[in-house]
Automatic annotation (TrEMBL):
GO terms for molecular function: 8-amino-7-oxononanoate synthase activity. This is 8-amino-7-ketopelargonate synthase. Belongs to the class-II pyridoxal-phosphate-dependent aminotransferase family. BioF subfamily. It comes from Aliikangiella maris. The keyword Transferase applies. It holds the Pfam family Aminotran_1_2.
Length: 389
């Protein structure tokens, strides 16, 4: 295509072993899925609480359909802000113990919104090196200065804060999506307090997973709205729906409604999806059974890996990576695991740093003990086979 030289870029990517493939999913998300014509026990999705295909949701959404329609038809500002969006925002704010919440079409858009609208020219954003791509892109979109600190390094963060004379934001994931570890938010919040910086936390993998009731990172660390003034939660992962929300003081929400471009200039999330989110939030509010079940499955997986001496990263969340290093090796391992009937994520650069390709295992509340045993046995065999080659 004219001057673009697309084939060269594609060939370069290929020569690095970094080309990604899409495979066709022929079933709903769940404990077992049909992908590319094969059935696997699924350890690759972010559907941590097994809600993505919940039957009771399907019937309740069908019932609501005449009053929601399918498309939302307009942005929130014009005439697309449905009563179900409104209700969901209220319930969510209550669940998260925050004054108010604002729903976005997805987490990517919410992160762009927050950074673009809050950080201005002359301000400083200090971000964890391993933050999600959407936060990196949001930092670029805001015209603020941008610095990164080594992953979860509190000393480096404090040094940056000490040196800053600008209005400063600290931006971090709560649970890092490719490592599964949790940011030390108590200490980060203290540093923000000490240096008068404003903390922005992306809780995409914490919401529904962390905390006794699955409220997320703030419940886990017992942090209030003052300590984490800008909290972003997403609904396409543990909540098994779609969309995202920013929550905090009412004035923050009022401001975002006026100034967040990726909130204003886009079609509202279909209200039927708001109904799905609402239904699943109700499931969470009815009790932490699924959250507890997930936690038990994580513990069981870790226990079996310890017995088999499978080297895991230090993660206590649903994301359990095994770092392999080389791109071809990780792809080969993924294929071999499939032969044992288990599907895992195979993550390569540029999603993760060079030479840190990894198997990304995700656990859900729906896995049976026997599934986890099947996975660990397969991992053990495949990793040994790998050592011999
Ligand atoms: C998935 C993810 C997002 C994006 O959320 P979507 O709703 O999928 O757009 C943002 N941040 C983190 C850390 C994520 O893992």
């Amino acid at each position: 295509m004219k001057f673009l030289n697309l084939s060269q870029s594609l060939a370069e990517r290929d020569s690095l072993g970094e080309t990604r493939q899409r495979e066709v999913l022929q079933s709903a998300q769940g404990r077992k899925i049909s992908l590319g014509g094969q059935t696997y026990v699924n350890f690759a999705s972010n559907d941590y609480l097994g809600l993505a295909a919940l039957e009771s949701t399907q019937s309740s959404v069908l019932e609501l359909l005449p009053s929601t329609g399918v498309g939302s038809g307009a942005s929130h500002m014009i005439c697309g802000h449905h009563q179900l969006h409104e209700l969901f925002e209220h319930q969510l704010a209550g669940f998260l113990q925050r004054q108010a919440a604002l729903t976005f079409t997805c987490g990517y858009m919410a992160n762009l919104a927050v950074l673009q609208a809050l950080a201005r020219k002359g301000d400083l954003l200090i971000s964890d090196k391993l933050n999600h791509a959407s936060l990196i892109d949001g930092a670029q979109l805001s015209q603020a200065d941008s610095k990164r600190y080594p992953h979860c390094d509190l000393t480096a963060l404090e040094n940056r804060l000490k040196r800053s004379s600008q209005n400063t934001f600290v931006v971090t994931d709560s649970v890092f999506s490719m490592d599964g570890d949790i940011a030390p938010l108590t200490e980060i919040a203290e540093l923000c307090d000490k240096y008068n910086a404003l903390l922005i936390v992306d809780d995409a993998h914490g919401f529904g997973v962390l905390g006794t009731n699955g409220q997320g990172c703030c419940e886990h660390f017992q942090l209030n709205q003052q300590q984490v003034p800008v909290l972003m939660s997403t609904f396409g992962k543990a909540l098994g729906g779609f969309g995202a929300a920013v929550s905090g003081e009412k004035i923050l929400i009022d401001y975002l409604i006026q100034f967040a471009r990726s909130y204003i200039y886009t079609t509202a999330l279909p209200p039927m999806i708001a109904a799905v989110n609402l239904h699943h939030l109700q499931v969470l509010m009815n009790g932490p059974e699924r959250v507890n079940k997930l936690r038990q499955n994580i513990a069981y997986f870790q226990q079996l890996c310890l017995q088999q001496k499978i080297p895991l990263l230090a993660s206590s969340t649903a994301i359990q990576p095994v770092v392999v290093g080389d791109n071809q090796t990780v792809l080969r391992l993924g294929e071999r695991l499939r032969a044992y009937g288990v599907l895992v994520g195979t993550i390569r650069p540029p999603t993760v740093p060079p030479n840190s390709a990894r198997i990304r295992i995700t656990l859900t509340s729906e896995h049976l003990k026997s599934d986890i045993e099947q996975l660990v046995n397969a991992l053990d065999k495949c990793l040994q086979q790998n050592d011999q080659n």
